[in-house]
């Protein structure tokens, strides 16, 4: 037994020094990374807070503009001419039955049907965000109220209650005299604004406030924020009708917008909440960094202690290769760093060697063996050719053309079998196969049909001899049923999108699914074995070695119960 060489380094000096240096480098890099990530997290969070505040202001402003436009559109639909103003007064003056008669009379007189409950009800159909509609006319003690539950609305005595609701107010004016006749209120749903604000940020501390031009607080949205800010805003608005912008900026990221429609929009994001969020992330980062440092130090120690063991793994594998076992591969999952790369390089080299043997040496061995068998079968070939030609000519002279064709086909097959050329063209190969099938057809008349088809561009395609014939021979050996009179086989060769596809199909006995899976597994295997078979696996290996990795042989059951074999590979001329 060969003795192992002693370790080439002193573990008490070089290894310990390397471990200390690597440990110091790793710990320094991790600490620098933690500090960098912490600072980056802080500035990103502050920037995200500013972006969130700006997006919230834009979202609320856009929503207010849309709602304001909807409110003006609805008001305009009710008051844009004197006839509609008169219609509103009649509604407030009359009972609902008298008002309905009035609407019918006006329709007969003017052709316009103005019925306030129907007009308002249509608004709910046009806009799905309306909660209620209120109209107050100065000359009446009653006001009109329509809600989502009672869309047609009704007259109510007293003063409408607008507190704590999202109402947009508009003056009702006479289109001719411009006299203010009353007020029009539309209560909109706040759900779309609240949903938008809820999804804007991933941390707590966002608040939003909307005030009308009269100081009425339309919207208050808070998300776990300090109640101090809300109280401060309400107090200043009650005292001075001004927002405490400077005071709020001390502790918050703030965005303020006064719209052209007179709305005040205020969005604040608490800096304290952002800092708490950052500190929480940093605590997780510090804990993760500590775990990472300990894990890396442990892995570093394990790497050096297992170094010699990994070298032994590589040497043991190479010893097996030197004995001729080319299927040996180094398990690179058991090696690390430069030894891992060395293992992969050796495995790649062994793959290339095995592939080279498969592509060159084994192909030569098989072809020489095939030629030897062909030579051994030759008995005075010229005498046989001359004799067959004499028989063919004699058959022609006696008027037996069918016998002459059979002799000619057999003579051609015999010449092709004894020809020592290693390759042929696809046209010649299929011509040879066609004559092979023809002889069977002559032997079993009215029982076999065949069809051969080839694209003109593939006629001169070069491929190894006897690439297609063994596949057809398998059909006549294993698949044909001579008790039937509808046996059929077809061979088609086409060029499709730069890829050669050769399809051999028959309607024979077929094969069982279990045996088909075994054959498919053998065809899919990349291992090339030396054997005497001239069947499917032999053809598969020869063509794969000739055309390279693009070659694929697929065998399946077809719809006619028989089998279909498809050979496909890239066009070598393209």
What would you note in describing this structure?
Keywords: ATP-binding, Membrane, Nucleotide-binding, Phosphoprotein, Transferase, Transmembrane, Transmembrane helix. InterPro entries: HAMP_dom, HATPase_C_sf, HptR, Sig_transdc_His_kin_internal. This is ATP-binding protein. One of its GO terms (molecular function) is phosphorelay sensor kinase activity. With 574 residues, the chain is α+β, with helices and mostly antiparallel strands. The chain has 2 domains: 10-305, no CATH class; 421-570, Histidine kinase-like ATPase, C-terminal domain (Heat Shock Protein 90), CATH 3.30.565.10. Helices cover 55% and strands 18% of the residues. The chain is built from 16 helices and 16 strands. The chain has helices at 11-79, 82-93, 96-110, 116-126, 191-198, 227-240, 245-249, 271-305, 307-322, 337-376, 381-397, 401-418, 426-443, 469-479, 513-524, 536-547, and strands at residues 130-137, 142-147, 154-157, 167-173, 180-188, 206-211, 217-222, 252-258, 264-270, 423-425, 448-454, 462-464, 487-496, 499-506, 552-557, 563-570. The chain is elongated, with a radius of gyration of 46 Å.
